[in-house]
């Protein structure tokens, strides 16, 4: 189902052909797993200050590497309702997405996709959803998050979020988030953006920070 050329072009690291990136994402995976286990959490949301920092790529590669652990399954959810992109990274054609689930009552089973990676399930977006921040703070989203987390307790749920500072979508979803992973992009993210982002999330739990596109490829910070 997945085309290796599409994955490679989009920097989705599925095989063992990208040794540096794979090692970095494995380290990220292990740190995330350990910290989530210590806090007793099974859901994590990936965000960043600005558009294009690498949230989606980090969410995808983290989810793939979490799914490499044989004893756990992973659900990757495209919560960027305004600009969903996970399906494009995988080269997937999506007929029904998360918008159909939230707005039109489509059954979960019709929306979930198994992209062909063992133990990984994707809840994709399809097109942009209007009034996304109102929808994100609505009871429909609360019910969906509850269902996703409760249905399979041993599963890890990874939410790919919109940027924190480019709208109120990420903040609207924050009450449903157990813990955040913040992506910063080397050479792009400014000190001001970091400060504003942490101020916005001052009441939220932050699992850690990922420095994306650094010389070391990917790194976690405490
Ligand atoms: N470490 C990296 N090395 C090279 N290119 C990268 C890296 N991380 C991200 N990119 C590229 O940067 C672009 C933005 O990445 P991505 O879609 O993950 O960002 P995003 O934060 O999710 O953006 P948006 O805010 O639009 O959702 C993509 O073209 C992606 O391939
Ligand atoms: Mg994104």
Question: Any overview of this molecule?
Answer:
The protein is an alpha/beta fold. The protein has helices at 4-9, 19-39, 55-67, 86-90, 98-104, 108-111, 132-136, 139-151, 169-173, 191-200; strands at residues 43-47, 74-78, 120-123, 156-160, 180-185, 206-214, 217-221. The chain has one domain (4-221): P-loop containing nucleotide triphosphate hydrolases (Rossmann fold). Strand 5, helix 10 (191-200) and strand 6 form a beta-alpha-beta unit. Helix 2 crosses helix 3. The longest helix is centred in the first third of the chain and has 21 residues, at 19-39. The protein binds adenosine-5'-triphosphate and magnesium ion. Residues 10-11, 48, 51-57, 80, 83, 85, 163, 212-213 line the site of adenosine-5'-triphosphate (ATP).
Task: Summarize it.
With about 220 residues, this protein is of the alpha/beta class. About 40% of the residues lie in helices and about 20% in strands. The mean pLDDT is about 90.
Report the bound ligands by name, code or SMILES: adenosine-5'-triphosphate, magnesium ion
Shape annotation:
globular
Total domains: 1
CATH class: Alpha Beta
How do the strands line up in the largest sheet? 3-2-4-1-5-6-7
Residue stretches low in confidence (pLDDT < 50, at least 5 long) are: none
Please summarize the sheet with the most strands.
Answer: 7 strands, mixed
CATH homologous superfamily classification: P-loop containing nucleotide triphosphate hydrolases
Strand content: 15-25%
Report mean pLDDT, rounded to a whole number: 91
Following the backbone from N to C, one meets helices and strands in this order, namely HHEHEHHHEHHEHEHEE
The radius of gyration is 16 Å
Quaternary assembly: single chain
Discrete helix count: 10
| First-to-last CA distance | 38 Å
Q: State the share of residues found in helices, binned by percent.
A: 40-55%
Q: Please identify the structural class as seen in this structure.
A: alpha/beta
CATH topology: Rossmann fold
Q: What is the β-strand count?
A: 7
CATH architecture label name: 3-Layer(aba) Sandwich
């Amino acid at each position: 189902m997945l085309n290796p050329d599409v994955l490679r072009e989009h920097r989705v690291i599925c095989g063992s052909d990208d040794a540096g990136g794979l090692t970095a994402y494995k380290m990220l995976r292990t740190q995330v797993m350990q910290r989530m286990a210590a806090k007793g959490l099974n859901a994590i949301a990936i965000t960043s200050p600005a558009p294009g920092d690498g949230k989606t790529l980090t969410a995808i590669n983290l989810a793939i590497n979490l799914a490499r652990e044989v004893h756990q399954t992973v659900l990757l959810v495209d919560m960027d309702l305004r600009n969903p992109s996970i399906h494009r990274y995988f080269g997937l054609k999506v007929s029904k997405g998360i918008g159909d689930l939230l707005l039109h009552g489509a059954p979960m089973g019709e929306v979930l996709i198994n992209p062909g990676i063992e133990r990984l399930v994707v809840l994709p977006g399809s097109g942009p959803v209007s009034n996304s921040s109102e929808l994100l703070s609505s009871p429909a989203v609360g019910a969906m998050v509850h269902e996703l987390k409760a249905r399979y307790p041993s599963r890890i749920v990874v939410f790919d979020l919109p940027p924190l500072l480019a709208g109120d979508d990420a903040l609207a979803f924050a009450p449903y988030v157990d813990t955040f992973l913040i992506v910063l992009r080397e050479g792009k993210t400014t000190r001001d953006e970091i400060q504003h982002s942490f101020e916005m999330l001052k009441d939220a739990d932050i699992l850690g920070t990922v420095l994306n596109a650094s010389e070391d490829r990917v790194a976690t910070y405490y």
